[in-house]
Structures
1.
Amino acid sequence: MNTFSWLFVAALAASVVLKLWLAQRQIRHVRVNRAQVPEAFADRIPLTDHQKAADYTLTNTHVGRIDLVYDSLLLLAWTLGGGLQLFDDLWQQAGWGTIPTGVAMIISVFAIMALLELPFSLYHTFVIEERFGFNRTSVATFVGDMAKQVLLMLILGVPLAWAALWLMQEAGSLWWLYLWLLWSGFSLLMMWAYPAFIAPLFNKFNPLDDDDLQQRIQALLDRCGFKSQGIFVMDGSRRSGHGNAYFTGMGQNKRIVFFDTLLKTLAPDEIEAVLAHELGHFKRKHIQKRIITMMLMSLAGLALLGWLTQQAWFYQGLGVEQASNHLALLLFLMVTPVFTLFLQPVSSWFSRKHEFEADDYAAEQASAGDLVQALVKMYQENASTLTPDPLYSAFYDSHPPAPVRVAHLSTRMAH
């Protein structure tokens, strides 16, 4: 172990302690407020539903703590424990050459990581979600989804990994810049292709067949100057009782998608308000800002990786004896989250800021009152806690806490 090894261990330990402390704050705060519905929701959400949401949050947070410790131990096993070096030694014995060996190593490590996380995924779906009445996923559907994900990883991941390793080997000292261009192009392509080619592998998307609702939505789209390839209903109820709505795609391939569970819960006015909120993200250019931020972050990360690949201490400090491009990629992807934890609350703050801006837009184009009604129903349907710990929420949550968001919209109702 070298100095970087100890720095890595210290950073990992600090992140685990911080996350466990935040989780304990969340558990304590939700438990203390379990007995009473917050005043702003007292006439809208029954105590039994409030307590169900609290219990659902507590259960997920408890399991999340175990998962956190488990993942941290696995990271130590892969790095300082010699796991990556062991697997690399095994693949080197195949004698396939530098790039094929690297691709095989990357794909196999990601596959093993997914298998190691499988128990938590199974427990969440078939125990927690089942216990709280959300699970609609059959074992056959779960296995089928896994098979499709593996197939997609092979179809998309193998060529991408091959191209990345080829650039690292053949493109000279600026390989990281060319790889950034490749990654950016691939990401934009996936955003465009996802709604038409990937999402339908997992769910059915049918055009909205409610003429009155479709006319109401189309009028809203016309007012907002938004053009899409259609309004679709997704069979979310096939897998879960949770409801949602979202935009997907980009350019001329944009789609508006409603979960079928959501349409059964909300009234037409409320659906219009939810859609107006989503349109607010489009009109306020939140999606473009996120794409630009993602690209700049990936550029900085790849530039850093370009430097780290030349540093022997980087490999040796993380349990790797022989430097290679594929091990550099794997180490960087595994270890970077430990050192960038401070970005989490910053990202969460910007995301919540965007949610407030989208709510303001919805209040202008539809009705703040209808959006509040819709949000209350969605909190209730999804068992979202109304009383998160403020510090925990500030660190993790991409959306404002329910009382804060409703209070903000209430001020818009007064205008």
2.
Amino acid sequence: MNTFTNLFLIALLISNAVHFWLAFRHGHYVAEHRAEVPAAFKAKVPLAAHQKAADYTQAKLVLGNIDTVISIVVLLLMTLGGGINEAFALSAATISDPLWSGVVALAGVFLVLTVIEIPTSLYQTFVLEEKFGFNKSTAAQFVKDQLLALVLGAVIGLPLLALILWIMDNVGSTWWLWAWGIMMSFSLLMSWLYPTVIAPLFNKFTPMEDGSLKQRIQGLLVRCGFNSQGIFIMDGSKRSGHGNAYFTGLGNNKRIVFFDNLINSLEEEELEAVLAHELGHFKCKHVIKMMGATAVMSLISLGILGWLIDQDWFYTGLGLAIEQKSHAAALLLFMLVSSSFTFFMQPISAYFQRKFEFEADDFAAKNAKAGMLISGLVKLYEENANTLTPDPLYSAFHYSHPPAAIRIAHLESKA
């Protein structure tokens, strides 16, 4: 083993040790507070609902830990175990063109990783979610979703992958700048196309019918100076009992989407307040800021890969024979192992996301009723079985939204 092999194993060990330790803390904390509803929610959330959320959280933690163990084993088999080396050797032996040999090798590895994840997805959907009353999907729907995602990945992803690899092979030392520009342009294009081209392949989107709710929402949009291409109801209930609302799209292709089960769960004023929160993300330019941060991190990552791509120890340290050295192999290895080295950046990202949530709540409190947002959120916490008592350290690492008690207390100060 070379020095980089040791660094990789140390990073993998430390990041996953912290992951399991945080999961243990979270599970223990939730279990400790299972017997009693927190004081801030005693008048709003029944004990049975609070305990259901605790049990649901525990079940998800167990499944998450199992999934992590599987991921570690697969990663080690793919890298130091020689799986990637065999994939590139087989591809090179059957396809003479280096570009398409690399594309096929990467596609084959991603296909294997996708297949390995299916049992966990099946268990989560038809055992865990079913047990807690959230699953509405059928086996036929599950298979359809998997196949459609696979086809879309091939139709959209393979040409992009081939283009990136061609640039890596032909442009020279500045390939990573060109690749970054193409990836960012592609990301913007997909964000613009998603509402009208991709999302309708998976769900049905029905324009909201005229009535008091639509009038209330349109009034909010006018007050906030927000333009969209329509308000739509999505048939989310055909897969899950979880409710949500979101914005999607860019520029003149923005849509407001409500899950149908959310419409049935909340009062009109609560829906208005939830929408005002989502509007806050746009008005506070959170979407642009997150896209900017993603662009910067992508540029840094590609710059690092641009240096690593010429280092023999990078390949051999991750189990690849030097004769299999290629730009395609470097790209795949980098994608698989980078998360082990960037794990400790996760709480930084989570911190800024929670900050954005507070800012969006402040916007909602100014443009709707803070009390209605509070009652709407409490209903969503209860119906989605979100724990009201997360471990503080675990939530600092993993939560993109503030914990329930902190968020409600912040909103009450604005009411």
